[in-house]
Amino acid sequence: MKADLLLILKQIESIGGQTRPLVFENPAIPAEVDAIKKNLGYRITRTMKTIFATLVLSLVITHVSFAQLKVEDLKIDTTITGFHFAANFSGLLVYTPHGKADLDSINPSAFSFGILPNATFASAIKQLDNLINMSKQEGYKHSDVIRRDTLLNGDRAYYISLTETLSGTDYINYVFHAFYFKGDDAVIFVSGDLNNGIYRDRIRQTFFASTR
What does pTM read for this prediction? Predict the structure, then answer.
């Protein structure tokens, strides 16, 4: 698995992204990462797409312990979606419709929260763009792309909304990635609705509710 993840890091670097040394440490959960990698290999495929994006993001941001803000301090209202906690990838908390059981399923909808410490607005945007560019390299098509730079309760924020498809398949992912700042730390939100849009609005509401 480690060799496969190193290939992911090289792919990120090939599109101009910055990565950090690959280190497995608490609170990473290797068994849950293995469950993803068993289905994915190192290529981004249709299987568990949003959770895999979260895993990739967890490899390129500083461990949460370096942030002034703690992910445990975030207001994550799971009642909006009805989602359940599924995994903790190095400080990125993942939620899916059925929680941990979805780690063995095909393409569950999911959202995740994490902290990008000591960030700049540009560096936070770049992390989200890296995820999108990796998908494009693997043949995914993006449409209805919306980007917004805004303020949420006085905090600078940014989001990307798009529809992701794959030619020759019925795959459709309503992607919503976003962040807002608290001091020098960016709260990163990565999500995708792979259930025909039934969670799309509620996933977005979950992000906006966390800023209050």
Answer: 0.75
